Amino acid sequence: MVPRVLVDATAVAADRGALGRYVDGLVGALHSADADLAVVCQRSDEERYGKLAPKARVVAGPTAIAHRQARLSWEQTSLPFIAQQVGAQVIHEPYYSIPLRPGVPIVVTVHDMAYFTDPEAHNPLKTTFIKSATRTAVRRATRVIVPSKATRDEIVRLLGADPTRIDVAYHGVDHTIFHPPTEEERRRLSDRLGLHGYPYIAFLGALEPRKNAPNLIRGWVEAVADLERPPALVLAGSGGWDDELDAALADVPSRLRLIRPGYLPWPSLPGFFGGALTAALPSRGEGFGLPVLEAMACGATVLTTHRASLPEVGGDAVAYTEPDADGIAAALRALIDDPEGRGRLAEAAHARSRDFTWAASAEAHMAAYQRAVEQ
Length: 375
Known about the structure:
Helix 1 links the parallel strand 1 and strand 2 (37-41). This protein is 43% helix and 14% strand. By secondary structure, the chain is of the alpha/beta class. The strands form two sheets. It has a seven-stranded parallel sheet, sandwiched between helices. It is globular and about 65 Å long.
């Protein structure tokens, strides 16, 4: 019998970034699989999770936990009490940190080890917190869930973790949201960007060092410099920080078009990814690579790096590059000059994306919950 699990969704941000897409997709799939489920969340998400999982017990935390420090304190003192109230046999923490006295077995998701492998590419204060929380979680949690074999292997290598306590559960993709776009979806997105049918290269992600946007900018400039009709580069995504970004932007020739639309809502992403010449996502490494999978599901020709988990997601259905500017330039130009090759990759990418479902992810998570209570 599957144990009753309390999923802590209180760390999910309002913009539904990668963590939000993971938790939302998982909760919906757990509900569909008839898991015995409770969810604790921000007050602003109470209705959302009530709709995603109508049979689940949904508990809204206090308003104060919208602030991170308050949420972390609440996690230590109040989350175990809520678990007791809802009769949970397992707590699932989907974001690094865990209560030190949970009262029941605890399962934690560790998404990546980037703060250990590339600390210079992140905010120093956040790096210190994430590294400390990850070490504690890996040491004290009953089970650890990771989204890829690459992340599992890094946890074992860097923290000396016991691999028998780590469960791999790939993320899924919602194919009702992420799908090959209609011509109307392409046109609407192109018009919104002010491109009106002009070709472009798509990037989506936080503008932080790990996402490698400065080298993408430099590589794009080099790749299209001699083209009569050079495709634009669209850098979409909210927030982030990257010390090299301004310098890379300053070197873009005036004849080239670089567009920064900021946050793009989910309904526009099929048109964004599927309408691009290529979705260029040359990250220096990912724990899974959800934007790569989502672009694949939209029928995009994807260019990414052969780093960490990304080959587990892309397989032979995407193009690969080294993360340096010259490598990106060569890979981009090869794709720009080969429309037939882009078409083959786009078709293969969409087919491969069908292998990644939230239903399969939920099944792997439920197996981890079961192992936690039996351990």
